[in-house]
Amino acid sequence: DTHLLLTGGMEKILRVYDLNKPDVAPKELDKSPGSVRTVAWLHNDQTILSSCTDTGGVRLWDVRSEKIVQTLETKGPVTSAEVSQDGRFITTADGSSVKFWDANHFGLVKSYDMSFIVESASLEPKSGSKFIAGGEDMWVHVFDFLTGEEITCNKGHHGPVHCVRFAPGGESYASGSEDGTIRIWQLSPPNVDAEEAVDTNGKPKAGAEEIACKIEGFHIAKEEKAGE
Fold first, then answer.
1. What are the backbone angles phi and psi of residue 31, rounded to the nearest 5°?
2. pTM of the full predicted structure?
3. Do 115 and 42 sit in the same domain of this protein?
């Protein structure tokens, strides 16, 4: 309901703020085993997901008891955790792996190994047929959810990509980079099926044309196509 704000950081404390009561001290959950890298709400305001900067796994917190009730095990620290819009999946990134977990029974559904270190991943919210990933190679990749095959690759950042997220409607997605920019990419055409996103040779279509705009500071400037 957008009334609560969840934060985490280096001091190993999760804080829940009531935005309707700005003068009230936040509720604190202070038993994180390490500095907090990611936080997210799961299903309601009584369950929280978090991960640590130097410890593997995603932890499920019961807000009422202020305790960790379950851990989704990963080999490395989880740098991104997202709950899908329909509440079915948890998407995580650790090392060079993107994983999809059942958000109700917490079993591992799919796991894909990438050719690069992944910092962030996001599942397309409407059909769930695609996911995006970005990381140290400075590119933003679009993959088929069922097969893990790469559909397209967007180049434009000049530093590692630390965060990627789909828009709620799935028609576009954003990437935030160490180069100080947020780029917004348009699916072309929006929500096209995977088989329609290849050229006549069966290869993924180039993603350079998908750039919608680039955000630098508070200014939004249209990207110009190459050659213009």
1. -110, 25
2. 0.81
3. no
Are the CB atoms for 57 and 72 separated by under 8 Å? yes
Same domain, 14 and 28: yes
Q: How many Cβ atoms sit within 10 Å of the Cβ of residue 177? A: 21
Q: What is the CATH number of the domain that holds 40?
A: 2.40.10
Range 104-129 average pLDDT = 96
Would you say 79 and 64 are in contact if contact means Cβ atoms under 8 Å apart? no
What's the domain range around 26?
1-75
Cα gap 216→43, rounded to integer Å: 33
> Is 175 among the domain residues?
yes
- Structure confidence at residue 170 (pLDDT): 94
> pLDDT tens, 6-31?
999 999 999 999 999 999 999 999 98
Query: How far apart are the C-alpha atoms of 225 and 137, rounded to whole Å?
Result: 22
Number of domains in the chain: 2
Is the CB of residue 51 less than 8 Å from the CB of residue 78? yes
